[in-house]
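Q: Is it fine to ask for two folds in a single conversation?
A: Yes, each is treated on its own. Send the first.
Q: Here.
A: Result:
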Amino acid sequence: MQGKLMKYYKKILILILFIITISLFCKNSFAGVSHVLSRNADYSTDDHAFLTTDTLYVQVTQNILDYREIKKSFFTLKSHQTKNKTKYPLIWNSDLTAFTGLAPLENYPIGDKITIHITLRGKNAKDEIKRKDRFVIGNTGKWTLTGTIYEKISDKGTGTLTNARVRIQGVADINTDDISYYPQEDDKFILSGENGNFAIDYEGISGQVIVITAGKEGYKNAGKEITLGHNNSVTITLSLVSAEDHPSYEYRSSKSCEKCHSTIYNDWQDSDMAYAAVNPINQLVFLLYTAWYVTGDRANFTDPSIFNDPNPAFVGDKGKIFEDATGRYMILGDAGHIHDCADCHSPSYASKVQGDGVTPLWDMRAGILTDVDKLSFVDKQGVHCDFCHKMHSVRDEEEYWTEPGVNYKVNLLRPDPLLESSREGKVMFGPFDDVIYKSMQASYAAQFKKSEICSPCHQDARKLYLQPLDGNNQPKGDAIERILWSEDTYREWRFSGYSGLEEDYPVNNYVGKVLQCQDCHMKDPPPDPTIGKSIADYREITDPFFMISEEKRKYATKRDPRTIYPHRFEGTNQNLTAGKRKRYLDWAVDLTVTDTKVEDGILSFDVNLINSHTGHTYPSGVTQRNVVLLVEATQSGTVLSQSNDQVIDTPGGNFPDGYYEGKGDYAGKPGKIFMKHNRMIVDNDELSPFFYDILYAHAVEELYDTRIKANQTDTTHYEFQTIDTSKITITARLIYRFLPKGTLEFAARNGYVIPLEENDYESHKVGVSLNP
């Protein structure tokens, strides 16, 4: 018994010692000291070469000692040439949570090597932090840097590489004389020649260490350090990105990117991209689409049997007959696929394949509106970091414009998961050719700076295969294709004065230059120089290390902030607060009331809606997006009766007995609805009144498209009967709606209620008064 007790106590003692050891280890592990030597008073650079005219700015941060317990804090500079030492104080800076100090360098000769000793000393002798570093005193000059770019050719060695983009790391492709936030482009890289050779000029300080980088599409970026005035020639070897895509690759959570890119991560997390897979409305539409695709009737959306077949045949409208102004048709089929929803809303999920090794995954239930959850933690992150940055290229040719998402337009290059721990098992594609961090294995992809990268999910259509019929429902002529454009934003931009890609649409917009999607929806849109107007709460990136987390900035590349694109993906995002959503809606268009007059007791006027600041139609996006123009005239406290027929059409909403009790119903009132209005074949009489908006996937005919193209104006005319000679007030309001009223009523009827104030946003209200 006593022996067992001794063994027990021995185990307890070992455990206690282990805990003490771990706690001490952790204390030292998590403790840290870092310092910055900078030529700039804001410590924005970490320099190791200085001019005699410079001031040395020192910043020291640490989490070992409580700053209040530090009794002495200073640094000394020792000259290599004269052996002289000079001591300078370090003062606690509460704003920076760091010790800071400065020293003039005018008394040190050019070529001198300076050793800096940093000391933070506490009450006790053991409580002392010491750090040492070196820098040089140089002179300004211009150096021609030369070298050769090679490519690694498997195990066969290397060969010279032509047309690699060579630059000094962090030097941006912009005109340095253009001080605007949207500067003109000016290439600062040079291309390697036929033998891989290059020569590039750089102005700097002798002794300064810079990095020469090289990148080329299809290769991983690489670079070498060079010391100005010492070694002016380098060789750089690029490795090919594997041309084989590996669908078995397991995507990483965006959370893994946060450690180094916290600001970028936080922006993305607040965007609609992060919620594309788990937004309840998206889930409801997915269920409706699945039921229709599998059974031909949306009413079956609550029946779990619609998911029984992992690769179901299309039913939808197949075999149904409809008639329109152009003739009578039988639907032979549909180019859509059951995985179309997942292709854009959970692309990492859809990019995997089922057991047959061919069919994409499609059952996108996310445990929101059903009890079944098919998506992994990463797939629920919607359009996430690791998916987008595994996109090697995008097919942007016209033949792909009718197809949605990952399985049609995106060339993915996912590394071999068996090589995950090696460099060969990593790659991240992006817009920079000078990112060379080993943990990323970055590869330059030019499309990340272009609107084409957005087109896979923001350009789509329904393609129908139709057989024309005669009056007896017999085939008449050859089968035809009918394309019903839906998510049409990329085409809208391309065929506008914003893209500069089409000869018939020369650049013509409010800033007079090409604007990519990224210029307005990652950054804030550029201000309008003509009227001096900018979007509300306009923000410019001013931090050269914006992309990098605070604790990683010591190792980061300093960039011109104007070349940095936040990942807000902002527009009319449904997850944003009303105020933030409203700023883009305010900015997009201008609303005016003109030509007001009263004749023979009839008030008449025009309402003008100008698409002044968007590079696509207003509204854009999926066909459910719509805008209501609501017009009213009052006199002596009475709403005047309209005497002409300019009224809001049926999709404006007419549900007096619905969940919202008629609130938000605008059909029949003075005004206009701006939308793409499609027609469908009725698959269920009970559901049809809710879906006058018609999701494009179900459409067979476009009835009208009243949306306003970029740079164009819509004018509507109104007439009202006056009641006396008192003052008249005209009010015109714009109400942006994410979803038409019918969709809201249908969702509410099925247990998912969207508050009206979260769906309908009054972006503009214009009032005009006149006396008859």
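Q: Second one now.
A: Result:
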Amino acid sequence: MKQIAYNKTMLVTDLILTSIWILFAVKSTPGIEYWKIVVIFMRIVLSFQLFDCSRWSGYCAIIFACAYSMLPGYHISGFQNAPFEMIYYALHIVDWDMAHELGLHPYAPIFQISIYVIWGLLTGWLVLMPVIILIINKNMFKFPKWAWINIILFALIALLGLRGYTIYDLCTFWVVGACYLPELYWIIVNGRKKSLVAAIYRNKPLVYYCAFVALFLCAMTIGFKNFYIMRPFGLICFPVIFYILLGKSEGIRDIPTYDTLFMCISGSLYWFCLEFRGLERIIGFVISALILIIVGVRLAKFTSSKFIGISLVVGSAFILYPAMWGMNPYTVLDGHTCLYMKKWRSYDGVYVTDNFDGKCGLRDRYGEILPMKYFTIDILDGGRYQKVLLCCLESISDDAACPEEDDKSYTFFNIHTRQFIKIPDDIQIKNISLIRKGVYALFNEADTPAFYLVMPEYGGHGDDGKYSMNFQIIDKRSYPAPIYDNVEIPEDAETLLSSDAKVRLISWDTGLGGTSPDYISCIQYQANDSLKTDFFYPHSEGKYVCATDLNRNGYEVYDGSRIDGLWQIDSEGELPIYIVATYNRASSIEGNTSVYALQFDDQGKLKKKQFLDERGELLDVVGRDYHIPDWDFATDGMGWNWIVSMDDSTQYLYVAEDKYDMAMTDRYDVYHYEKGRMIYKGTAAGHWLHPSVRKFDYLCCIYRTKERLYRVDWAASSYRLSIWDSNKSMGDKPETIIHNGQARDNFIKFTNDSYTFIVPLYRKGQGDDFDRVIIMKDSKIIKENEI
């Protein structure tokens, strides 16, 4: 097989790809552990060993492949494949729409495919390419026998493992110890005769690589940290240094003076045109690009290498110049990663930059949008619905390096229109409070709401398309009713009204969430002779349930719920108590029902009343989780109104008991309002059942046929069958009650004199269900009724 030459072109390509991996690998974690430095150093050394045909190259290729596959965060099963995700998200600066179409959401299948493709290509080059070249060139296992000392390291790892060291420590110990074997060998054999520093200096490719890395890192630092003074100096001097390094790397002894002067002019024009807009900028870019192309052609002619000329033009125009001006994809993080890092960096092709004194600005791939004078920049609504509104916290005083709380104000910027949302100049916005989804109260210096900011096109249903830019700033002085009184309620929303007609609860499914629906619930209530409308959020840490009251008290507002029940308890000497049952679903099989007791306080706000449970604990909410299919099968779809109910005659509240994990028994914890709270009174069967069938441990199943209703309970250590006519309810007296049922393979057998009733052991749709009730007399089947 023909050997593969690892020539200078291969070396340069390898170093470029390796540098890209290093750049994003280092950026992917907040700190650089020592084992990362070791792995990075090992891969760079491997490139030069392949170029020099070193006999140690095979050993380093093996060690690097093992380290790459074992160390956390560097392989496909590592922590979110961080380096490759970083490369993927850098595409958002180049073309946000294209990157979004590839799959912005980290759980989208196309996103995972994109990461795997990037990982596969780069891993193939970093790990497999050196191994393949060495095997084809028959240089894979020519390292000295002394290198087999690594076997001792493995043995030591095994001993350390027996002593309880973690795999992370073991991998680190192996990499740190093994990667220095070539260097140790060189020092032992040649250390007395040759200088290691001199040997490195004589390795010209290594020296030039270090010089190029230092040059570009300096350029990126100037741009990323916004060193204004260094930008003109860098754009004048760095292109010349880049030209000299490229020329010297190809052996040019005399660097043409005019070419270096032209490189200075090209960088100066780039700096000059970025300070202007319009025609001046276009002219400056065109002249700068023409000069670069001319110098690149001349350099290619001097060195007889088209690759060097192209490298000068591409490296200067697309890397060196933009990096010094801060247009650097390396600064980009995606919005989803920022949810974990609590910082917003990139959205819709726009990303946040910061300078050396910690102030922030806004850029896109075309240039600066907002100057770096803001202390924080964030998406107002967290980015859930791709809103385009930014909240910028800035200092009123330009001289304030770290402003006090009173020296801060908010401004609002529309990303798509690239305009600030206008607020009167004489009012400073000092605080922001979420009133409801899509509506914010803006507080002035006196800490009173001066304006309401309304998001566009928000009706609670969500929209995958672009939102319109019609943001509304509503002056409270010209808007008599609070903004949260104008809630848009769909026509198909479910509505419940209290007995005194003072509280109305409305809820609806937004259509979002899939198997875990996203519900919105609203409340209309009488307060101070006026009708108020607000979002209803009982699932919160606060004592109140209206969104406005919760936000004003600093509590987090959770998602809404479907309202399943509303009852009223009238207590002598007190305002009415409103019992509210809410429903939420975690998945297609996991449901939750919660119950709250509410009462108006002295300020006209709905406040939670506490429950005293069977353990003597005071709770703001009672309820339970359950498996939806199990309860549906057990009750044949009849039991959804049983989970929470109120006995109007006694005003006792029945809540499904939370005795078994996710399993319903059809027995209930009973509460009664006494002494200012709901007090636990015991456990009982449902009040809707006839007294003759209320004593049981748990419900097994209910079967309905055209003629009869069959209920099977576990009572007194055996199965019990209760039978009603199909036109009757379970509140009526059963026609027949049969005890001592016996379970068989897939049925339960009940005997009553000469009659035998056979019902399925398994619930309808589960197990080996034969889907019918069989009635026998004297061992002969007289009737079969399908369930």
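Q: Anything structural to flag on that second result?
A: Two points. The chain has a mean pLDDT of 76. The radius of gyration is 37 Å.
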